[in-house]
Amino acid sequence: MSQRTRVVVTGIGPVTPVGTGVDDFWKGMTSGRNGVRRITQFPTDDLSVKVAGEVDGFDPSAYLDTKEARRTDRYVHFALASASLAWADAATPEIIAERGGCIYGTGIGGIQTLLTQHSVLLEKGAGRVSPFMVPMLMANAAAGHIAMRYGLTGHNMATLSACASSNNAIGEGMRLIRDGYLDLCVVGGSESATVPLTVAAFAQMTALTKNPDPETASRPFDAGRNGFVLSEGAATLILESEEHAKARGARIYCEVAGYGASDDAYHITAPDPKGGGATLAMRWALRDAGARPEDVSYINAHGTSTPLNDAAETVAIKAALGEDVAHRVAVSSTKSMTGHMLGAAGAVEGAVCALAITNGMIPPTIHYATPDPDCDLDVVPNEARIMDVTLALSNSFGFGGQNACVAFRPMG
Q: What is the DSSP string of 222-274?
């Protein structure tokens, strides 16, 4: 059997409540910066939820021209900003058009556009609805705009698997390069769904925390956790074949070594308490990477801060790695800092894994105060930890029971 093409990360572009750009983002992550704050984008007087993760001071004009910004939704603004940062971080790679592609995820897409134009219809009539509404709100708009910006005529697809979306994007992009269809793939995810309707809907499901204190609202694995914090933003990774990256002298962060995906087939929103699907995704990722459970040193957990998810993920990690190994692995949830960015979460957390490998440091789970016996792993409480990361797993689990796990490791 011929040796498989290795796939590497050469560019990272975070746009998050914790920081924008690699340096600011990583400083925020390792210092335990809290990106959760009181909602400022709309009044919350009639809402039971008061906090969210907002990208402060974001100015689309820094990344899009006036016409482009006016004809795209905020989630596309985040995607294009993130892609621009990642492309620059990868030192503006040249690529044969058909050898470059884009796989980009979102959980909800252009909901802000949908709500705005629905109001126009009701208040001003059908003749005033924007002709750009459909291309603004569609969930594949970000993937299409990124391809146009960088002239990528190869495989292009939007992944729509709820909170697993951008982890699926990373995994599928990796496969396209590894199987020889592409030399480079722009992968990631974007979300901007923090609007009164979605906040109210998630709250009615009892999925969101009603804790109004930003300093304790998102507390994964803590016994006092009571719901996730809705968040916005994007992250983009530039993936290349090792050969293509080295031929152009690119700086390489790490290898994308494996990918596993599964479904719980249990409940449309609740995780399987036995962690069956999540366990399978992790096992497939390890198998795909040719790795053993004992090779894993760090897991960036899905860790949403809901009672059901964090307990089920703990069960799944133990089942995938074995009890002894699971208790030796560092398992942090960076959603304690960012909140839950839905379809963008996996890309942000993939960026964390790549930077942890590069910098020899893992970010903490902040706001951790009271241990929960159902979440008894090493959750890296409250302070970053210096350590060599030999193999990192990034977990993302979504409504619909969809699970995706990506394995990252150092180049060696």
A: BTT---B-BB-EEEEEEEEEHHHHHHTT----EEEEEEEEEE--S-SSSPPTT
For the stretch 209-254, pLDDT in tens is 999 999 999 999 999 999 999 999 999 999 999 999 999 999 999 9
Q: Are 242 and 174 in contact (CB under 8 A)?
A: no
* 340 catalytic per annotation: yes
Angle at 53 between CA 372 and CA 274, to 5 degrees: 35
What pLDDT, in 10s, does the model give residues 34-53? 999 999 999 999 999 999 99
- Domain boundaries, given as residue ranges, for the chain: 7-409
Residue among 77, 145, 244, 340 flagged as catalytic: 340
The domain defined by 7-409 carries CATH number 1.10.12.10: no
- Residue 35 CA to residue 299 CA, distance in Å, equals 21
Active site residue 185: no
* Owner of token pair 């930077």: 355
Catalytic-role residue among 77, 145, 244, 302 = 302
Model confidence pLDDT, tens digit, residues 125-148: 999 999 999 999 999 999 999 999
Q: How many CB atoms lie within 10 A of CB 296?
A: 28
- Whole-angstrom Cα Rg for the chain: 20
